Structure formats: C-alpha cells, structure tokens
C-alpha cells in the first residue's frame, strides 16, 4: 500500500474570520457567538460522540487529527477539549490566534507535513459531522488505485455521496437517508505536500469543477449534523428529519460506532 500523509482537519469554535457563510464584524463578536455556554455544551456533545467518536474507532488509524481552536479559548472548554482529544490516537489540539480561516489552516497544515514527502490526503470534518468506521481504510484504498490520475494532475478529490443527516435529541437520534455528492463530509483532497492550499481552501461543492473527482455511491459513509444552527443553513433538511428506525439506529451504532445510550445520558447530565 502506498505511503500517504493523512490529516483530518477539525475546526472547533475557532474565531477566525472568513470561510463561513455566517459572518461577524470582529473577532470579539465571533468569539462571543462561538463560545456562548449553551452553544459550547451542544457542540462538545457532538464533537465527543459524533466527530471524534467516529475518528477514534477507525479500522485504519494511520492518520492524524488536527483540532483547531482559538488561542484564548477559556476554561472549562479548554480543559474539556484537551480531555476529549486525549482519547483519540494521533489527535492534536492546535490553539491558534484568530486570523483568516484559510490562512490559519495553511500555516497549521504546512508545519505538519513533510515536504518533499508522500502525497497529502486531507479531509475536513465539522464538529457535528462523522464518518463510517472504515472511511480512512476505504479512502486509502481508493487513492492508491487512482495514484496515476493524481500524478498526472497534481490534485484530486475523493467523495462518498451517501450518508445520513443527523440530529441528536434527548429522545433519540433524528435522521434522513441522503444521497448528495460533494457535501463536504467523507470527502478528501489529495494534494502535493508542498502545496500552499489545504482542503479548506477549496469550496467542497465546486471540487468537481476544479480537479478530477472520484465519487463512490456506496456504502453510506457520512453523518452530517443538522440542528438549525449550521453555517451551511439547511432549514428544509431539519423539517425532514424523523426518529431513527430500528435498522437506522443499528446502522448508527455498527457502521458509525455511535454509543446511543451514552448520548442519551449526556442529555440527562446536562
């Protein structure tokens, strides 16, 4: 199997400006929004049980996870974030000063890649998104098969287009089965390690126009969090969510590794 530098890029309440559809006039205004206690409790729940929960159980753990947040993230959130990251092999919390989001990711990623070195595979993951437990394994296999294409073009995207919209509630998960290409979850870019741009520099919904893109229609590979506050704004999706059927709940547990009883307890504890 070919050698790769695989990075999972997770932004957690990072108050840099730019790269979001919901903008703020200042770093102070954005930090106040992102670090509001009620919001932080909700996002730490999804970070623990969905985002990091699916990453720490991968069948292929040959990757690193970079969790990027603000350098002034206050307690108790700072300590709780470090504790959660400590449960994920290969995870690093990066406390970075506020700046343009893409510039920040460029600095952070380039400092952690060997250049020259093997190709860099990067995938972004919001703090309420997750991937199937075999995502990295299948991603590595797909990129290995397509290396001649990458060598010819210098960059390439790999996308899995089936998954679930998901909302965690005290009464249990709400879901919708979805097929949607280039949603940004379970999607990776293969880049040269010396490239100045990262996976965050490319609009995920435009990748098929920017580079060769491989799309795999099965199996279900992603969880996209839907709670009405997402930056990507999908109010119609929120209204379509329904309580998970027994088969869907089983898939959340076996394919994605979600601990549904633990999630229910987290609401009771809150």
From TrEMBL:
Pfam families: Rhamno_transf (PF11316). The keyword Transferase applies. It comes from the Bacteria. Keywords: Transferase. GO terms for molecular function: transferase activity. The keyword Transferase applies. InterPro entries: Put_rhamnosyl_transferase. This is Putative rhamnosyltransferase. It comes from Jannaschia seohaensis.
């Amino acid at each position: 199997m070919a050698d790769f530098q695989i990075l999972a890029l997770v932004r957690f309440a990072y108050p840099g400006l730019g790269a979001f559809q919901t903008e703020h006039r200042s770093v102070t205004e954005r930090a106040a929004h992102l670090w509001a206690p009620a919001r932080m409790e909700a996002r730490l729940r999804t970070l623990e049980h969905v985002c990091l929960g699916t990453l720490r159980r991968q069948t292929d753990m040959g990757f690193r996870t970079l969790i990027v947040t603000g350098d002034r993230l206050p307690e108790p959130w700072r300590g709780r974030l470090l504790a959660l990251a400590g449960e994920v092999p290969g995870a690093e919390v990066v406390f970075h000063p506020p700046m343009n989001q893409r510039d920040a990711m460029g600095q952070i990623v380039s400092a952690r890649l060997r250049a020259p070195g093997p190709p860099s595979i990067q995938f972004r993951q919001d703090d309420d998104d997750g991937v199937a437990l075999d995502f990295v394994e299948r991603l590595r296999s797909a990129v290995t098969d397509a290396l001649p294409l990458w060598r010819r073009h210098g960059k390439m995207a790999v996308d899995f287009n089936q998954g679930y919209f998901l909302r965690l509630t005290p009464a249990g998960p709400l879901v919708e089965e979805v097929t949607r290409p280039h949603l940004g979850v379970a999607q990776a870019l293969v880049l040269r390690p010396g490239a100045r741009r990262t996976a965050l520099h490319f609009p995920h919904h435009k990748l098929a126009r920017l580079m060769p893109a491989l799309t795999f229609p099965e199996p279900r590979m992603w969880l996209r969090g839907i709670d009405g506050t997402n930056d990507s704004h999908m109010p119609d999706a929120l209204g379509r969510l329904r309580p998970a059927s027994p088969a869907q709940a089983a898939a959340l547990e076996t394919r994605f590794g979600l601990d549904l009883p633990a999630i229910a307890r987290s609401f009771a504890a809150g």
